[in-house]
Specification:
- The protein is of the alpha/beta class.
- The chain folds into two domains: 212 residues, Alpha-Beta Complex (Quinone Oxidoreductase, Chain A, domain 1); 132 residues, NAD(P)-binding Rossmann-like Domain (Rossmann fold), CATH 3.40.50.
- It is 25% helix and 26% strand.
- The protein is built from twelve helices and 17 strands.
- The strands form four sheets. Strands 3, 4, 5, 8, 9, 16 and 17 form a seven-stranded mixed sheet that branches. Strands 12-11-10-13-14-15 form a six-stranded parallel sheet.
- Helix 5 links the parallel strand 10 and strand 11.
- Helix 4 crosses helix 10.
- It is globular.
- The structure holds NADP nicotinamide-adenine-dinucleotide phosphate and zinc ion (2 copies).
- One zinc ion binds next to helix 2.
């Protein structure tokens, strides 16, 4: 057992503060990773502030982790000391249920072991996330990271990347698809990059005109400010697919109206409140309202390899660990371009 530096939420209403957490000795199949960068996801805020309910404290958030392998167990095959490695939203699952054997471990029937705010599969040992200097994870739940990409920009791929890549693939977005990405934050800006890379026509729906130039640089063909009723009406019955990344309460019915025949709006954003949907908002054009949760290990590796091949990374603002509370406040105001990434050197000193 090692004790390592971390930052933790000690309650839903207090700022994150320094903490020390235990990390196990690497077992036969484990890799020990010196964490270099850790992305800041809006889910970290939802959970640290207990907005979804059921949070456990102290909580060390962070599930967009990249670092360098420092030790490996004697049965480890995929990694050697010195390799780059990534860890996303989960660190284990049962490996035997239908969803695990289908490569969709995020839906494990026996309960996925989340990277933080959860437990290992023993259901006793708490898990602690990436706002820390070191982590030990089974190699099967650890991703290979290319050394050709900028490392801070890779960290957000482990959640924001796979969460947008997976639904765009599942709903077969490609050339000829008219796609709207709703919300231009950490997830949204990756959604724009992937939808563009897959050959779709991409529109960003945003609260703020100030992100238009960046959206177009990332591959968007069009940009609509959602408060502009005239411009919104022009897009009624226009899109085949809407990737809804919005983190706060909004009226789904209003945006379903933008879908054309057989169109789908997929929710990846997780506002804490229930939002009523009118039957008529779906029935009119045989529309679908769907949801998607990150992606399995196989698809996450596929996404990382795709990014390495195409040179895709997240646009990031690198911060020291000590600025995390300010970063949370700025994310709530949608003021991040486009993902905060913590430089873990700031915690090692
Ligand atoms: P983020 O960086 O804070 O971005 C959220 C964006 O939502 C903002 O940039 C803003 O876009 C838009 N927004 C915020 N409040 C709004 C409002 N009142 N009305 C309309 N738009 C609003 O957050 P994120 O890290 O991308 O995460 C987004 C959501 O996805 C969170 O709820 C998070 O928990 C969830 N999530 C889900 C999964 C999954 O697997 N399903 C994975 C990761 C995260 P504009 O500035 O363009 O208006
Ligand atoms: Zn996340
Ligand atoms: Zn399972």
């Amino acid at each position: 057992m090692k004790h390592v530096h971390a930052f933790a939420a000690f309650s839903a209403t207090t700022p994150l503060a320094p903490h020390t957490i235990p990390r196990r000795q690497p077992g036969h199949h484990d890799v020990e990773i010196d964490i270099l960068f850790s992305g800041v996801c809006h889910s970290d805020i939802h959970q640290a502030r207990n907005e979804w309910g059921g949070s456990t404290f102290p909580m060390v958030p962070g599930h967009e982790i990249v670092g360098r392998v420092t030790r490996v167990g004697d049965h480890v095959k995929k990694f050697k000391v010195g390799d780059l490695a990534g860890v996303g939203c989960f660190v284990d699952s049962c490996r035997t249920c239908y969803n695990c054997t289908s490569g969709e471990e995020q839906f494990c029937d026996n309960g996925t072991a989340w990277t933080y705010n959860g437990t290992e599969m023993d259901r006793v040992t708490p898990t602690y996330g990436g706002y820390s200097t070191l982590i030990v994870v089974d190699e099967q739940y650890t991703l290979k990271v290319s050394n050709t990409l900028s490392l801070p920009g890779v960290a957000p791929l482990l959640c924001a990347g796979i969460t947008t890549y997976s639904p765009l693939r599942h709903w077969k977005v490609g050339p000829g698809s008219r796609v709207a990405v709703f919300g231009m934050g950490g997830l949204g800006h990756m959604g724009v990059k992937f939808a563009h890379a897959f050959g779709a026509e991409v529109t960003v729906l945003s609260t703020s005109r100030s992100k238009e130039a960046d959206a177009r640089r990332m591959g968007a063909h069009d940009f609509v400010v959602i408060s502009d009723e005239t411009e919104m009406k022009k897009r009624h019955k226009y899109f085949d697919f809407i990737l809804n990344t919005v983190s706060a309460h909004h009226d789904y019915n209003h945006y379903l109206a933008l879908l054309r025949l057989n169109g789908t709006m997929t929710l990846v954003g997780i506002p804490p409140e229930a939002i009523p949907v009118k039957a008529n908002a779906l029935i009119g054009q045989r529309r679908s309202l769907a949801g998607s949760l990150i992606g399995g290990i196989r698809e996450t590796q596929e996404m990382l390899d795709f990014c390495a091949e195409k040179g895709i990374v997240s646009d990031v603002e690198v911060i020291p660990m000590q600025q995390i509370n300010e970063a949370y406040d700025r994310m709530i105001r949608a003021d991040v371009r486009y993902r905060f990434v913590i430089d873990m050197a700031s915690l090692k000193g």
